[in-house]
Amino acid sequence: MKKLLSCLLMLTLSCVVAFSAVACGGGTTTDTKSGEVDQTTGNTIVKIMFHVDEKSTEGLAYKKRIEAFNAAYKDRKIKASATYTARVQGAAGYEAELLNNQVEGTLADIITFDAPNTASYAKSKLLYNISSLVSEDVQKDFYSLNTYDGSIYGLPIQESSAGFFYNKKIFREKGIDVSAYTVDNPWTFEQFNAVCKSLKDAGVTPVDMRLDATKDETATYLLYPFIYAAGGEFTSQDGYTATGYFNSDKTAAGFTFIKNLITNGYTSYAIGPTDFFSGKVGMYLSSGWTIPDLDNKYKEFFANRDDWGLLPYPSSAVAASATGSWSFGITNNHHSDKTAATELLLWLTSVESSDAITAATGMIPARKSVNKNWAEGSPEYTLLKQLETSGKERPVTVAYPTFSTCFNQVIAALGTNDVKTLLNAQADTLQSEMNRLKQK
Predict the structure, then answer these.
(1) CA 433, CA 158: separation in Å to the nearest integer?
(2) Which element (helix H / strand E) includes 152?
(3) pLDDT, greater one: 277 or 93
(4) Checking DSSP bridges between strand 158-159 and strand 364-365, what pairing results, if any?
């Protein structure tokens, strides 16, 4: 009888262990300090969360690089497992999900994140300090790194710059010559207004300034350079003071430039998302992601590159242009050994990956050694040259999510409200959040 009970006990324990390890033969994973290990294959699973739809052009590019990684690391028993969390509710929805995952303890090993959030995520311990994981030679090959307080917390997927796509057919028909305006010789605020006036006088809506894109980061990303160009600033250098910066006279001058475009009828909140692409608007403020669309879609209005071009940001006190894009970062999740995650991070930000991903997205490669040999004067050349000469990042502050919201609220109300009144109110809001974070 004792022998029978002993055998039953051993059988029960064996079933429990087996169930815990493989869920009765289901091939589930067990957790280790370096990642989850699939008991069926022995692979260490590295989980990564992307911010785009799996079937989008960008999502497909990521998918191919993940597949290539898994093939290359098959013998090393490391496998990447990707999830695609499309930003259907804008960037804010994706950011909220990341923060929820942090609270719940379900963060993926690697995430994609928007570069301006580096300081906020680093201070909150969402991101892992990767300074010691990336060699100096690799660091030097990036146009920019995601840094906070002297340490590196992410590597860019691709670089970005923006400018004014314009309808060459309309400009030719109306006799408007902008050929002199280049990155080396940018147009001024006054010259920009003069071109807008000529378009309006000719019966054409001059420019889509993307004033309706305030539900996510788009409006902030595209419009903040105008404030820098006017000589303004948003925060103190340490990122903890907004009063006297966000609402300064020079900052107000930049917002006033945008407001005057509305007042003069050169732009509006009512421009449709495809009005430029259907030939109704002369210029369209956007980034490199618009290049593939113009090359491959809307052939009725833009048969080839003879029908459209790209102009740089106008300058005033200084030249300033948009920069900073999405990045890869290792998270501070429950996996203490980051070896496998580091292998995937370096793979996805390699020269080969940078080349492949930007070929699909139309953006600038994050790695300097990816030589595209773009022809001088081409849209890609203009974006890269502008990035190198006048690119200025959005303010580095742990309160960046609040800054972006405040900026968007100014833009949304700019058409019907006094600039200084708007800036004073939002400066107070931003300063309150900075004070709170400084005490943490």
Answers:
(1) 30
(2) strand 151-156
(3) 277
(4) antiparallel
* Cα 174 to Cα 18, 116, 265, distances in angstroms: 77, 40, 18
Q: Which amino acid is at 236?
A: S
Query: What is the spatial distance between Cα 166 and Cα 107, in angstroms, rounded to a whole number?
Result: 42
Structure tokens at 249: 């006279």
Q: What percent of the chain has pLDDT over 90?
A: 82
Alpha-carbon distance of 207 to 144, in angstroms, equals: 30
CB neighbour class for 233 (10 Å; exposed up to 12, middle 13-18, buried from 19) = middle
Q: CATH 3.40.50.720: does it fit domain 162-323+394-438? A: no
Domain with CATH 3.40.190.10 in the chain: 29-159+326-362, 162-323+394-438
Q: What is the CA radius of gyration of the chain?
A: 25
289 to each of 171, 359, 363, how far by Cα in Å?
23, 11, 6
From residue 333, give the alpha-carbon distance in Å to each of 14, 111, 148, 349.
Answer: 31, 11, 19, 21
- 409 by DSSP, 3-state: which? helix
pLDDT at 412 over 90: yes
Residue with tokens 């309006």: 200
Q: What is the mean pLDDT of residues 334-339?
A: 94
C-beta neighbour count of 56 within 10 angstroms: 16
Q: What are the structure tokens assigned to 427, written together?
A: 């400066």
The residue type at 202:
A
Contact 353, 261 (CB under 8 A): no
Look up the CATH superfamily of 29-159+326-362.
Periplasmic binding protein-like II (3.40.190.10)
* Euclidean distance between CA atoms 268 and 88, whole angstroms: 25
Is residue 134 classed exposed, middle or buried when 0-12, 13-18 and 19+ CB atoms within 10 A define those classes?
Answer: middle
